[in-house]
Amino acid sequence: MLDLRRHYDVAIFATGANSTRRLGIPGENLPGVFAAADFVSWYNGHPNATIERFALTAKQAVVIGNGNVALDVARMLVNPRETLLQTDVPQHVLELLVESPIEDVHIVGRRGPLQAKFTTKEIVELGKLDDVDVIVDPCVLRVTESELKQAAPPTARMVAALRTLGSLPRGRARRIHFTFFRRPVAVVGHLGAESVLLEATEGDNDHSKTDRPPREVVDAGLVLTSVGYRAEPLPGLPFDPATATVPHTNGWVFDGDDTRPAVYVAGWLKRGPTGVIGTNRRDSLETVNALLLKAADFPRALERNPGAVVAMLRERGVEVVPWDGWNAIDSAEEARGESLGRARVKIHRLDELLQVGSQRATE
Hints:
Elements: H1 2-7, E1 11-13, E2 19-20, E3 33-35, H2 36-43, E4 60-64, H3 68-78, H4 81-84, H5 91-98, E5 104-108, H6 120-126, E6 132-136, H7 145-150, H8 153-166, E7 174-179, E8 182-188, E9 195-200, E10 215-219, E11 222-225, E12 229-230, E13 248-249, E14 252-255, E15 258-265, H9 268-271, H10 277-294, H11 306-315, H12 323-339, H13 350-362
Parallel strand pairs: 1-15, 3-11, 4-5, 4-11, 5-7, 6-7
Antiparallel strand pairs: 2-12, 8-9, 9-10, 13-14, 14-15
Helix pairs in contact: 2-3, 6-8, 12-13
């Protein structure tokens, strides 16, 4: 924090919520069980992804969670080759997903459709997937018009979109299943995940009352968990472990009676892991507006030279990629994509990124 204040007038922390919550059930550590966030990092080519090698041999997958991340990973598992070619995922990821034997993906939530955190846009996009059926839990149809009127408008629109998906014709090669009012109690398998044992939960209404048994087993050689995220404490900042957020007033960081001058937060570190891109935009505007109200009162940094920051980092052994290095990476990824008939292909290895990024900087 002292280094930041020496070189910058104001610091805004927007590091998000990087830790994923665990299920706390037997079998969670079996091979084939991954946090959805780690899976996203893998297919996005993040250089620090925890998944280095991935074998996709399962025909059925279970995604545990009722938020947009669950939808993202489900969609990636069933996307056809033509759609994947339009993305910038690394080539080895593309090849693995194209050859994937996945036929069924079950999205499982412990609560009902009215409590799901999906956004309407993401639900509608599922209906546009080529050769993919969307099979919706019958409980969605039992949501009454009265309940929809009482729900928040975004929730009502989302449930209506789910109903539309459930009414579409079926008979395609791959399927996404929405299952509500079920919680996982165990991942079962010998050398790896083979199935997930689900248990019925009590709904907030009678929508969960069906003829289905109180327990059921879903075959799954791949299990992805997306049940919540937590921010981690940062050096020099106060932290509330109960909410996993930094205490603040409209984004201005405080610790009890001690307000931190010129230190702000935004995003999930500020308010917890809720909302979508639009929510983060509004949240960021609140922080920036609060900052501008006090900007004239902040003391200026002692050393406002960007070159001094780079020098300090290099003295500490940090490899810095300057702007022309980023441009070199950008050009290299476009060239790699052109050679493979794609718009762009990400470079996912950190050593290669640093090598490419340092070439132009030293020319």
